């Protein structure tokens, strides 16, 4: 719809312009402030320029009215244009909101350490990344989703040690001196019992087996993580092991040296990351010759950029904000364009239950398990609430709100709108095929505006993806559902003179609700 409007306006103006949406639809569906930018060039007032431009447009096919208002040029779309688009949309649901973007994108998200189950902080990044991928693919982008498995660091060794000591204490009944740092939580004890079943008691009798337990435990945790993600409908196209890339370190290190971006000091090797905005230079090789954690990121991004995508998007936890400058610097030092990398941050989540802090999971130790919240409110509610705010802002929600069956629960309210439309069709004893060819004309202003709002989904999707703000889609769905409920409560539908027109209008609303929900991983309910 918007593209058709832009083409029609550009044909008359023969120049680039900004297209906006007035907050008050009574002014028009779209507006442009181009008269203000032309004022200096034409040496006329914006008001006079807007009045002259408005007279150039033909009315009927696309525009019902083109009106100059205080220097703005406002465009009201014709009923015939909206009707034509509405008919196409309900006949081509699979194509509604689709686009023909061709950019290739490697999207990496979650990438939680495979040392424990996912917590709600991981869940927010997981849901955000999955929704971004779904929307982007719908728009035509060639997106590959990837999980980076951090299986080469001390954390995996610590997992093996924690399992070993837990097995000695809880299975062999031996006294154990626990180190200051280890993985806590009942899941470690449970995992030790699984290890006993699969590997035998002897696995806990010799420290030499800690390495075996590390690899075994990492694989089990990765299986659990995949299961946690599958419970909310998230699957990755590929997993990349950090450990498998470490034999490429020499290759990446040579590239850094080639560009003269490393130096030796204090027995360590550093990169000159301050040259590109980092607060200090960073160590990439320790005194003992072992690569640092940053070296792992350098190898991984070297590997990523070798794969030749047009763009790379990383979704990281907010605690990784300080890593952005150093990783981008390293990418530049490897000889790539660091501007091709976007890093999006997912802030932590505060969870309440009945207004009180949600209890930590004993199984997890000191955090709230994603699986516990899913079992409490369901996958749909979890997805919707995690997408209801910009990902880099703090999110607080009460799980009890998402058990309510009223307008306070947004996912219930949206689903109820979709189910209500199906119920209205049933009450009218009509099907979509009965009304899809009905001409939408002589609609009242509320119906006209509701139709326009329902047809906005494609540009909402485009805006949500381009701005990386998926909450624009959830907000749109809430507002569209509220408009539907309000219209139905204020207008007689079944048995009215305009029954078939209203049914077709409602079919378009249902289409946008259904497609929009699907793109955030939720199947709209037909019955409530």
Automatic annotation (TrEMBL):
Keyword Aminoacyl-tRNA synthetase: yes
Any one GO biological process: arginyl-tRNA aminoacylation
Top-level taxonomic group: Bacteria
GO molecular function: arginine-tRNA ligase activity; ATP binding
EC numbers on record: 6.1.1.19
GO CC list: cytoplasm
Catalytic activity: tRNA(Arg) + L-arginine + ATP = L-arginyl-tRNA(Arg) + AMP + diphosphate
Cited CDD domains: ArgRS_core
Protein name stated in the entry: Arginine--tRNA ligase
Source species: Sulfurospirillum multivorans (strain DM 12446 / JCM 15788 / NBRC 109480)
Species lineage: Bacteria, Pseudomonadati, Campylobacterota, Epsilonproteobacteria, Campylobacterales
This protein's encoding gene: argS
